[in-house]
Amino acid sequence: MQVGPPSPTGPYVPQPPPGPARPSPWAVVAAALAGGWIVGCTVLTQAGGWLTDQVLLASGLDRLPWLWPALGLPAVLLAGMPALLLALLPRSAAVRATGRAWLAGVLVLATLGLLRAIPPVHHEAYLAALAGTAALAATVLARLARRRAVGAPPPAGQPAGAAGGRRPGGLTLLGVAAGLVLLLPWVWLGALGGPLETGLAALAAAALGALAGALLDAGFWAPFAVGEPPRPARLVLVGGLVAGVALLLLAAGIGQSGAQLPLLLTLPPAGFALAALQAAARRPGAGRAADRAPAGWLVGLAVLGPLAFTDPEEISLVLTNTRDVPFWVAAAAGAGFAVAALLAVAYGVLLARPRGRTPSRRVAAVTAATLLVATGVIAAGPGQPGLHGERLLVVLREQADLTGLPAGAPGRAGRDARAAEVYRRLVATADRSQAGLRRDLRRLRLPYTPYYLVNAVEVAGGPGMRAWLAGRPEVDRVLVSQRLRPLPAPAGVSRGTAPAPTGPEWNIRLIGADRVWSQLGVDGSGVVVGSSDSGVDGGHPALAGGFRGGDDSWYDPWNGTRAPADRGGHGTHTVGSAVGRGGLGVAPGAQWVGCVNLDRNLGNPAYYLDCLQFMLAPFPPGGDPFTDGRPSRAPDILTNSWGCPSIEGCDPRVLRPATAALDAAGILVVAAAGNTGPYCGSIDDPPAPYPDVLTVGAVDRQRRVTSFSSRGPAPGGAAKPDLVAPGAEVVSAMPGGGYARLDGTSMATPQVAGVVALMWSANPALVGDLARTRQLLRETATPAIASYRSRDPADACGGDRNITGAGLVDAYAAVRAARS
């Protein structure tokens, strides 16, 4: 019996409903072009923003807090407009889903970019804001997805209600395994911060994982999985590519400036792995669809690496001269990219075959558990175990009264008496005024380090501790004392490639130091120069004979070395310019003592204080600076080729009591002006702006002030620098017995310290007479040629005095004046 109308060709066969229309090739081309455009715009704006931050840092200019929020506007316009057109115009559901996902990613990027206005020094506040914003965005996207899904049939291969259940399925566990594999390079090569910082990073990673799950939910994948029979290859290739662009946009908004760069490499390839999990979920008999959970776990664990195991302030060009944090971040990012690509291929081959078999939940659970154990073993073994957070420098209101010091006898005897009295008053003030604070810190079992040169205490703690400390009546202010995180391998040693000198170098001849040796018979004998820097290679042939020796001539608060050593090379070079033999140093007969206040080219106010205290009252290894200091062993002159900017935790006043105390003790502090010229007012990082510091700029062979030499006036209007000295292409010692030709006011500064050593060697009665020494240096200086940023009168810095100081130091004239 026929059921349907007769047919000339046979009985009627019911036909399946028509499938979705094939997307127009023009729409596909437009989507591909839009995707390439979005990727290019995102990568360029992120790399350009980070480079801008780095140039400002290297130039000594203030960070632009509006930089990253401002970059959000072009991101919305340049990347958001094509995404919006794709979401609205094409008839293809897949192309529209592509546009919606990319538009959501652009909006997320612009929103998260606003958070980078928070200063990097307040990293905990940034992570908390990131967690809250990501959680809010995930909630909004999830609600929008639910509204779109009302009345829509479940995705192919998933019966209604299949997404429920509490136990994670096999595909979710495979997402966890993929995330752990992406996390492993960071656990091995990175290091955690403080407890609060680590906890907030984990919270932010969880929120970002939820955001990724909401961005790549079932509604996103469904248009790429249509067809009868299903074509998993299309889902993996096309859906994975679209997901990769969406993850790139998400990655660009994660982390402070610099932390997002590795994620731009590691997250996009993971889109293909997620697509493979979705293809497996839609295979008949798979049981349960991979919806948000795999994306949430994979992305959350992947972003935990750069968020928790690196400090964004250390992803800096300042540290690229050795195998430091930027090198290891690049290594982790490269490993993450390779792992993500392998995961995409492996998951695609194993999970996306039409007749393939999905791994059981037991196999997936064992895989995830094995990787979790491996992560813990690496963290406790080859990694850098422990917490390495920042500390707080608590500056007390009361500082020691150093007025009314006895004049004493001229020369070293009087200097030693004044230094002893200054030391006594400083220690007494600190012991008395810190007593209550120390007692409370001991009761809370918080480790702390007291200081007396500045009446301050360094203590471990986060924002909550900072607020409690700032509220105490004896506390003036609380600063963040930055700490570098450990490396998986020691940073490389900087070695020089310049040939060894065969006689006095050009800079020595320019200031007449060689004439002092040959004509006046003075070489600095009897004077001690103290260096606070990256260290000193005590075995260098130009420096070994000048080390004072004893148990109180070397201190390394960073690494605890017991003998003079240096990896960075900066300290070896500067000491060589001051007292090096063989034609390098201005005062080759003087002795030197050293302290390490820089490690990997960065410091913090506490370590700077460690070395300045040691220079006032040296103490033996393991000694207590408060009770074991020896003021009579203090060096006569201090050369300081460093500055403490705000990124290291200093404010303009923090080291002011320290230099005032050293000045009162009769110890001359010579400091580099800085290398942030030719901008006017660029002498602003302590200690260079202080009035009791002899600040030194740099000139070249033609006596012309170099373009990099910082200029005055100092904050408050004081004229700086005080003098200039040769600072371009200066040859001096480097670790391992080598030599290098370097530029900077760092190179000029030790030469002025060497000139003072010659003056005091020629006339020991001048030792400790800082006012008379400064006067003689100014009176005997020779003219230097000022350089300007432009012809604009505003770039003249208020007069040549703020560019050249009193002029080029003249060793020969200064020593003759000292003798007379």
Automatic annotation (TrEMBL):
Annotated Peptidase S8/S53 domain ranges read: 524-783
InterPro entries (alphabetical)? Peptidase_S8/S53_dom, Peptidase_S8/S53_dom_sf, Peptidase_S8/S53_subtilisin, Peptidase_S8_Ser-AS, Peptidase_S8_subtilisin-rel
Q: Where are the transmembrane segments?
A: 26-46, 66-89, 101-119, 125-145, 171-188, 200-223, 235-255, 261-281, 293-309, 329-351, 363-381
Keyword annotations: Hydrolase, Membrane, Protease, Serine protease, Transmembrane, Transmembrane helix
> From the Swiss-Prot or TrEMBL record, what is one GO molecular function term?
serine-type endopeptidase activity
The residues annotated as the active site are: D533 (charge relay system), H570 (charge relay system), S746 (charge relay system)
Pfam families the record matches: Peptidase_S8
UniProt cross-references to PROSITE patterns, sorted A to Z: SUBTILASE, SUBTILASE_SER
Q: Which domain of life is it from?
A: Bacteria
Q: Which GO terms describe its biological process?
A: proteolysis
Protein family: Belongs to the peptidase S8 family.
Please state what the protein is called.
Subtilase family protein
Q: Taxonomic lineage per UniProt?
A: Bacteria, Bacillati, Actinomycetota, Actinomycetes, Micromonosporales
